[in-house]
Amino acid sequence: MAAIPVFYSFHFANDAMRVNLVRNIGAIEDNKPVSAPEWESIRKSAAGIIRWIDENMSHRRCVIVLAGSETANRPWVQYEIAKAWNDHRAIFGIYIHNLRCARTRMTCSQGGNPFAKVALENGNGRLLSDLIPCYEPGPDAYNSIASRMEGWVNGALVQAKARWG
Fold it and tell me: What domain range includes position 89?
């Protein structure tokens, strides 16, 4: 598969280690993680965070929401989901609660569907969870994600093309 540039959306404080496991699968081209000092500079203002998200998402064809125990409730994740949808990007989610954190070797509880927190504009109360899949890779999460990632990305690209042309 040709490298498809993706943007990962996730709850940094809780899931950065799990996200790095997904990044290390190497099945796709992703946005590189921001360094801690750079993030401290970015997060000083909402405008700085929005600018960083907008700039980094602008060159990505697909947004992958990596959903841990609290991801669905994070306002910046909700912003990234809405932006991806409004920009007509391919998008899907993966529950990552069964990935073991490299530091603690612990898994976490499954969180809610992050697409259930974002309503469609003029959608008569419909939520994005009605239209966007969030995959559950199961107990062998790493191998399941590694073997399915390419198909999930390609499926999201096909869905986006069918939806928006």
Answer: 5-164
